[in-house]
């Protein structure tokens, strides 16, 4: 088999895999399963980026999604009354709005996909896309890159400050607990 | 384009490397246990045969079932962990121009494999629908999320002198000076993270004895065998990457490159596997605090110093 045929077959496999797992996100009955199906869907998209010779972007997408989906699963389970996340539960809400939003965004993206004038020059195999991306980010786009970097750093520091161990009712490593109700006040005449 | 092995040869090479690595981990673990305990038979034959005996016992042991588990997830977790170890191993070069795969983003591929270990361990603890494995899974979530940033920063510093994300270039750049000398903070951070990621010894918090086995509490027979094999393979992948990224990989006098690579990997394996018998297990709460408050700043210092030396 020649190389482009292999790439084509892989593309259709990853594309179909992404669509099917993306569909399964809404058909499953558990938050953890939904998060992991979504992760599988993103891995397919990352693999397609790799096939498009955007190797760095594809691998970094997969790298980032692993952490993000785990955080999402943990946070979702944390805020629900279903600590294990294995009990069956209904994963879809607001049916009519969701259907309408889905149809509108599908139509919009289809219009863009069919009418936009995408560049179609294949990249020369000798080009190191990762190095090119680095020069692009740190050359002409330096200001944007720096601004985004500082914004992200501020967000990280803020998130760590918010999630630090000094909670409202004591430090987290001692088991932060709400104090009991003050009984004396209630009993006083 | 950078070098890749043919698919068939690549699978064979990685499989052989993993089999040898897992066996070596088991032998080191047995030897360290005997030395640290000072009891039991200490003849060489027993040390070499014990791993095979353990495999035979686990392979014939009856598997366990829990009530309403997520069976696909439970079956997938050890396979995923083993596959990640294979992915990590594939990008580690053993000699100049000799690697299973040498993508220009080899460093990122390895980091991605390490990040996905979180998914494998969480899935492994969550799927059995049982209390202790679930607690283990959440513990590993906390542990691994805290480890990711120090790991990435420590690894990233090694890419600076090479001015490349390809592991081959990272090793090539250590011809005159190994990264362990250039970045003395890097290797200790990397080893700490490596032990944590492969949840071994002092950082075996998700599968620890205090959780009656944690995520593998409900595993028996082939389930446990597959999990233990994958865990040891992960340790081997981390040790070999540590040898390549910090100890100069194939560089060394007299011996050929692959021999140096094997010796350095063995040295790191002895340090990491031995930690199980020499260092007490830490508690998860102080460990997570230490990761965010100590190791991230240290890794940042490491990367700033490495960057300043290059300017």
Q: On the 0-100 scale, what is the average pLDDT of chain B?
A: 85
Give the radius of gyration of chain B. 19 Å
The fraction of residues assigned to DSSP E strands of chain A is: under 5%
Global shape of chain B? globular
Order of strands, main sheet of chain A, comes to 1-2
Which residues of chain A sit in consecutive blocks of at least 5 with pLDDT less than 50?
none
What is the number of E strands of chain B? 0
How many helices of chain A? The count is 7
Low-confidence stretches of chain B: none
Give the oligomeric state. heterodimer
**Could you give the distance between the termini of chain A?**
90 Å
| Count of beta strands of chain A | 2
Structural class of chain A: mainly alpha
The number of helical segments of chain B is 11
Largest interface: A-B, 32 and 30 residues
Structure explained in plain terms:
The complex is a heterodimer of chains A (189) and B (311). Chain A has 189 residues and is mainly α. Chain A has helices at 3-27, 31-51, 55-79, 95-115, 129-138, 142-162, 183-187, and strands at 166-167, 170-171. Chain A has a two-stranded antiparallel sheet with strand order 1-2. The model of chain A has no long low-confidence stretch (mean pLDDT 81). Chain B has 311 residues and is an all-alpha fold. Chain B is 69% helix and 0% strand. Chain B has 11 helices and no strands. The radius of gyration of chain B is 19 Å and the shape is globular. Chain B starts with 6 loop residues before the first helix and ends with a helix. The model of chain B has no long low-confidence stretch (mean pLDDT 85). Classes of the chains: A mainly alpha (189), B mainly alpha (311). The A-B interface holds A 30, 32-33, 36, 39, 55-56, 59-60, 62-63, 66-67, 69-71, 73-74, 83-86, 125-126, 128-131, 160, 165, 172-173 and B 1, 68, 70, 73, 103-105, 108-109, 111-112, 115-116, 118-119, 122-123, 126, 129, 134, 138, 141, 144-145, 148, 165, 285-286, 289, 292.
């Amino acid at each position: 088999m020649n190389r482009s045929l292999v790439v084509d077959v892989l593309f259709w496999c990853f594309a179909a895999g992404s669509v099917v797992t993306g569909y399964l996100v809404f058909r499953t009955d558990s938050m953890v399963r939904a998060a992991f199906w979504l992760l599988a869907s993103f891995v397919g998209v990352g693999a397609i980026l790799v096939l498009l010779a955007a190797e760095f972007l594809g691998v970094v997408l997969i790298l980032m999604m692993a952490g993000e989906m785990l955080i999402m699963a943990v946070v979702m389970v944390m805020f629900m009354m279903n600590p294990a996340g294995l009990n069956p539960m209904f994963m879809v809400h607001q049916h009519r709005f969701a259907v309408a939003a889905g149809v509108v965004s599908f139509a919009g993206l289809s219009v863009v996909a069919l009418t936009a004038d995408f560049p179609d020059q294949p990249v020369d195999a000798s080009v190191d896309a990762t190095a090119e991306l680095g020069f692009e980010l740190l050359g002409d786009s330096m200001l944007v890159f720096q601004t985004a970097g500082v914004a992200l750093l501020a967000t990280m520091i803020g998130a760590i400050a918010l999630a630090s161990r000094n909670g409202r009712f004591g430090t987290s490593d001692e088991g932060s607990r709400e104090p009991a109700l003050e009984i004396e006040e209630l009993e006083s005449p | 384009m950078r070098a890749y092995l043919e698919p068939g040869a690549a699978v064979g090479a990685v499989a052989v490397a993993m089999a040898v690595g897992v066996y070596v981990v088991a032998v080191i673990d047995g030897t360290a246990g005997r030395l640290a305990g000072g009891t039991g038979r200490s003849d060489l034959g027993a040390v070499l045969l014990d791993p095979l005996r353990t495999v035979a016992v686990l392979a014939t042991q009856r598997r366990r079932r829990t009530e309403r588990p997520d069976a696909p997830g439970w079956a997938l977790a050890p396979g995923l962990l083993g596959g990640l170890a294979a992915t990590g191993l594939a990008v580690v070069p053993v000699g100049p121009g000799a690697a299973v795969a040498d993508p220009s983003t080899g460093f990122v591929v390895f980091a991605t494999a390490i990040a996905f270990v979180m998914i494998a361990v969480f899935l492994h603890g969550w799927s059995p629908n049982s209390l202790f494995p679930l607690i283990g899974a959440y513990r590993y979530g906390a542990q691994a999320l805290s480890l990711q940033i120090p790991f990435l920063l420590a690894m990233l510093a090694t890419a600076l002198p090479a001015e490349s994300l390809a592991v081959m270039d990272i090793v090539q750049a250590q011809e005159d000076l190994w990264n362990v000398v250039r970045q003395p903070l890097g290797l200790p951070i990397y080893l700490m993270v490596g032990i944590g990621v492969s949840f071994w010894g002092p950082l075996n918090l998700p599968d620890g004895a205090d959780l009656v086995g944690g995520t593998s509490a409900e595993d028996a027979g082939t389930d446990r065998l597959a999990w233990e094999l994958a865990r040891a393979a992960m340790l081997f992948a981390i040790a070999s990457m540590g040898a390549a990224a910090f100890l100069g990989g194939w560089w060394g006098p007299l011996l050929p490159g692959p021999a140096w690579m094997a010796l350095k990997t063995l040295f790191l394996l002895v340090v990491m596997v031995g930690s199980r018998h020499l260092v007490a297990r830490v508690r998860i709460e102080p460990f997570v605090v230490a990761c965010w408050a100590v190791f991230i700043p240290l890794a940042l210092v490491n990367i700033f110093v490495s960057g300043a030396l290059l300017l």
